[in-house]
Amino acid sequence: MKRIDSESSAYASWDASLALSTPWIEATHLGSIVSLTTGDVLAREGERHNYFYLLRSGFVHSTIQRSNGAEFLLEIFGPGAIFGEGPAFANRPRPTTTRVVAPAILSRYLPSDITQKFATMPELAASLIQLLGFKNQMIVEKLAGVAAAPKERVVDLLLRIARLQSNSEFSSAPESKDFQVDLTHEKIAAMTALSRVTVTRTLNALSRQGVIETRAKQVIIHDASALRRLHYKNS
After folding, report:
1. Which H helix or E strand runs over 72?
2. For 139-152, what is the HEC assignment?
3. Does the pTM of the predicted model rise above 0.85?
4. Where exactly are the structural domains of the chain?
5. CATH class given for the domain over 150-234
6. What is the CATH T-level fold of the domain 12-143, as seen in this structure?
7. What residue spans of the chain are helical by DSSP H?
8. pLDDT tens digits along 15-25
């Protein structure tokens, strides 16, 4: 069984999935492929929904509604994330609303179809069991009041997008290398469930520190090492 470090950030389930989703990514014959656009809703809080998903590209939010009507960001999913498996297998109402925030391609699965594959592909069952256990622990931590601060969300997203756009060379690249993140302030705000004002304020602060530069529809990371130190400091 793979070890998964528990983190309370909005990216924790995504990180856990990355450690466990390889057999799902490789099993392209399972499920059906679905393409969705920004704003599409996969499932709403309180509704019953038969499917669970593997996100192959794009980004998805999972939110819950507070008693005052405001939405609270619970999770952010990116490529490699598995989500929705708990209520799908238990045939229970969805505890969250899941919405696409960047054009997405997903594999969609019916639990009844997948359980028939467990005998010949036990690695699928093992990964789901471990993922469900981790997510249960993560939810407890979140309910205890531990949540990612706005600066942590923005810094973590920039690091992740830079890594994706540089074909996984980000962590080993020379510190002098610039990394271009092709996202507007509005898109960063949508992907982190923050206001545009908060994102702009955060990016301006990072710019004054010299670690990034903001341009039209872009963020340029000048000092990857400093940005990583900020991330680990906030973790």
Report:
1. strand 71-77
2. HHHHHCCCCCCHHH
3. no
4. 12-143, 150-234
5. mainly alpha
6. Jelly Rolls (2.60.120)
7. 12-20, 22-26, 85-90, 111-115, 122-143, 150-165, 185-192, 196-208, 224-234
8. 889 889 999 99
